[in-house]
Design a protein that fits this description.
Helices cover about 50% and strands about 10% of the residues. The protein is of the alpha+beta class. The protein has 3 domains: about 1-60; about 70-170, DNA polymerase, domain 1, CATH 1.10.150.130; about 185-375, Intergrase catalytic core (hpI Integrase, Chain A), CATH 1.10.443. Strands 1-2-3-4 form a 4-stranded antiparallel β-sheet, with helices on one face. Strand 1 (about 1-5) and strand 2 form a beta hairpin.
């Protein structure tokens, strides 16, 4: 039996399983309209949910019920907020965290009934969780999962679904020590000498001297770089996400920045540009969405495969007699050498494109301690009698 409300106010029907289903055309967080279904054990329960959605429509609030399960809200958050507002790699990372951990332990809890006690118990369970390889979750990953939940609940507050973010009432799990593994200055010089004749010499120099992320370097175009002044804009990234090669926005607003290349990098880029003219051979095979003037491409004109950069780096380090390292360690190397040379933590934060100075200080605090000791030694020499 179908009981219809006035035109535009939705319908309520009894399902074969005995439940009642209400359907209303509602507004989503993107401003679009879509048909939304809610359910109740009785007609009145389904009608109450229908009225709540209509009331949200009147107030201009996206219609998702505050009494919905957290797992259902997380699906909404991922699809209508994260997928729309953030890059594909961010969406993929959040989706994995939500699917593997948050929904597993908290997905059946009602959004408006979640308590700090639930969240604390969730964190305790995370510390006993295993990765797909059977290893315990790191302190850093536990904190990332917690921060994902907190971010989702903050969105629920902005959508006026809950009055407080209970995750903010729980102490953030300790991230533990973060061990950046930069090359020493001597090893960095060995590495630079080794890559001097490599066809991607300019790429390696940019990585180790500017601290760009791998995807940011691979996303550079010739139009991003002023070859006279050395100024260049970081505004896109290249990543493989679930097997798909994607060109997207940089990680955060702070990541979209203008930096400068030194003369050594500019000279290497100029050589690379000239050599590219001879190296490029048709037929060309650019990746989908690839900018026309991308800098770092293969002989077929296709963007350099991000995974191949890892392989090439380890081969170059081996040839230079150095230990294996990640491409990201070149970023740590640039930051560490800048700090050791007297750069301030804020300058390094801007260079790296970190979202906050706290992130930079957390990663490179040990370098700052060493710099402070060196400053104390300098002042000690100044204060010492001749």
């Amino acid at each position: 039996m179908t009981r219809r409300a006035a035109n535009g106010l939705g319908t309520i029907v009894k399902r074969k399983d005995g439940r009642y289903q209400a359907a209303v055309h509602v507004s989503t967080s993107t401003g679009e309209t879509k048909r939304k279904y809610v359910y109740g054990k009785t007609w009145q329960e389904a009608n109450d949910k229908r009225v709540e959605m209509l009331d949200n429509n009147r107030k201009g609030v996206p219609s998702i019920a505050s009494s919905m399960r957290l797992g259902d809200y997380l699906d909404h958050w991922l699809e209508e907020i994260i997928r729309v507002e953030r890059g594909p790699s961010t969406y993929s990372g959040y989706e994995i965290v939500v699917r593997r951990y948050i929904k597993k332990h908290l997905g059946t809890k009602k959004l408006n009934a979640l308590t700090p006690t639930h969240v604390r118990a969730f964190v305790a369970k995370l510390r006993k969780e295993k990765t797909v390889l059977g290893k315990p979750l790191s302190d850093r990953y536990v904190q990332n999962v917690f921060e994902t939940l907190r971010s989702a609940l903050s969105s629920a507050m902005r959508e006026e679904l809950i009055g407080r973010n209970v995750a903010r009432l729980v102490e953030t799990p300790s991230r533990g020590g973060f061990d950046a593994e930069p090359l020493s200055e001597a090893d960095a010089r060995k590495f630079i000498a080794q890559v001097s004749q490599h066809w991607l010499c300019a790429l390696w120099l940019i990585l180790v001297t500017t601290g760009l992320r791998k995807g940011e370097v691979l996303g550079l175009t010739w139009s991003d770089v002023d070859m006279e002044t050395g100024a260049f804009r970081v505004k896109r990234t290249v990543q493989r996400v679930r097997g798909q090669l994607l060109f997207g926005k940089v990680k955060t607003k702070k990541s979209k920045r203008t930096l400068y290349l030194g003369q050594v990098c500019l000279a290497a880029l100029a050589r690379y540009r000239q050599e590219s003219i001879d190296r490029l051979k048709p037929p060309y095979n650019p990746a989908a969405g690839q900018p026309d003037d991308l800098i770092f491409v293969t002989s077929s004109g296709r963007v350099v495969e991000p995974r191949n950069v890892n392989t090439m780096l380890n081969r170059l380090l081996l040839q230079a007699g150095l230990e294996r390292a990640r491409v990201h360690d070149l970023r740590h190397t640039a930051a560490t050498l800048l700090l050791m040379d007297g750069a301030t933590i804020r300058e390094v934060m801007e260079q790296l494109g970190h979202a906050s100075i706290a992130t930079t200080a957390n990663i490179y605090g040990h370098v700052l301690d060493e710099a402070k000791r060196r400053m104390a030694a300098r002042m000690d020499r100044l204060a010492s009698p001749d």
